[in-house]
Amino acid sequence: MRVDQFDFDLPEARIALEPAHPRDHARLLHVNGLKCTDHRVSNLPGLCRPGDLLVANDTKVIPAQLEAMRPARAGGGGGDVAVSITLHKEQSTGASHETVWLAFARPAKRLRVGDHVRFGDGTLEAQIVGHEGAEVKLCFPCARPDFFEKLITVGMMPLPPYIARRRGIRRDDADHYQTHFARAEGSVAAPTAGLHFTPDLLAALKAKKIGIETITLHVGAGTFLPVTADDIADHKMHAEWGAVTADQAARINAVRAAGGRIIAVGTTSLRLLETAALEDGTVRAFHGETDIFITPGYRFRAVDCLMTNFHLPRSTLFMLVCAFAGTEAMKNAYAHAIGNEYRFYSYGDSSLLERA
């Protein structure tokens, strides 16, 4: 299957640089086959049924964008060197006294294994323990809780490049680019469908007896990487870490057994649910990495509906929604959204997709 089958023209004016205020006033396109109806996210309770279960991602975005200084090396070789660092995936070492991350560095060629880098006023420091191309492995000599506490003081929110380049990163993005469900630190990108939820919306869902469950998938920088292959079969997904506990799986399975629908809030929740699902749709406990790549022809097992923002042309996420709701239906829906001035991408509007 060719990647250009998932291309479409998107005017730059449709790309959102700011979130909706309040969050649940973002627009919501309900897609059921070729039928599209316009709503607000605040109308979501009326589009769900009593007994349905929304499953959201409770990952928390960390301030993963960092400016570092590599001090001059002993024995000459130039002075201090400024380096931009973007953390993208935590690595488990089993040691309680250190925290290790993979990161993209720019300019990476000014770093080598053994170098030390300093962030801010030296509040946080790390050693380069691995280096391959633009990627480095950083070892921070502090326990995980201490690492995150220090990171808040020196890091910035890792806004998507298409926003950061056009208007920069602002202080209020620390709040805007975090979902109501955020709890488990570890993502370098927000699960953006969850950005639309507010306490008022959650109360309205509860009043209609629509449940909320959360699971965890830490979103990596691979979210922003373009598909460079011409054929889908040649694209490799980056693995991301996720977890579904036994209790969470039991509650999800109980809803399905009672006739309720499982509504994934975002493609991250959907990918984790489908990773954890057995052939009959039963969700099992899961703890580990997933690199599931969902394209047309995939048979969905666990998810009945999907709430998701509008995605980039030729992206793995647009392929996923085409697999879920049908390629013809999604091309029709995106044409409707563009024609009716919906706002696209992370800070944009949302959609509710019925499974084909």
List keywords for this structure.
single chain; 356 residues; alpha/beta; 6-stranded antiparallel barrel; 9 helices; 17 strands; globular
How does this model look, in words?
The structure is a single chain. Helix content is 22%, strand content 28%. It is α/β, with parallel strands linked by helices and 356 residues long. The chain has helices at 44-47, 144-154, 161-167, 173-176, 199-207, 246-257, 267-276, 316-325, 327-339, and strands at 27-32, 35-40, 53-57, 59-61, 65-70, 81-91, 99-106, 116-119, 124-132, 135-140, 184-187, 211-217, 240-244, 262-265, 286-290, 305-309, 350-354. It has a nine-stranded mixed beta sheet with strand order 2-1-17-16-14-3-12-13-15. A six-stranded antiparallel barrel has the order 5-6-7-10-9-8. The chain has a two-stranded parallel sheet with strand order 4-11. The mean pLDDT is 94.
Give average pLDDT, whole number: 94
Strand content: 25-35%
- The residue ranges in which pLDDT falls below 50 over 5 or more consecutive positions are none
SSE ordering: EEHEEEEEEEEHHHEHEEHEHEEHHE
Largest sheet geometry: 9 strands, mixed
User: What is the helix fraction of residues, given as a range?
Assistant: 10-25%
Assembly state of the chains shown: single chain
Question: What distance lies between the first and last C-alpha atoms, to the nearest angstrom?
Answer: 19 Å
Structure classification: alpha/beta
The total count of helices amounts to 9
Radius of gyration: 21 Å
Number of strands: 17
Outline = globular
Give the spatial strand order of the biggest sheet.
Answer: 2-1-17-16-14-3-12-13-15
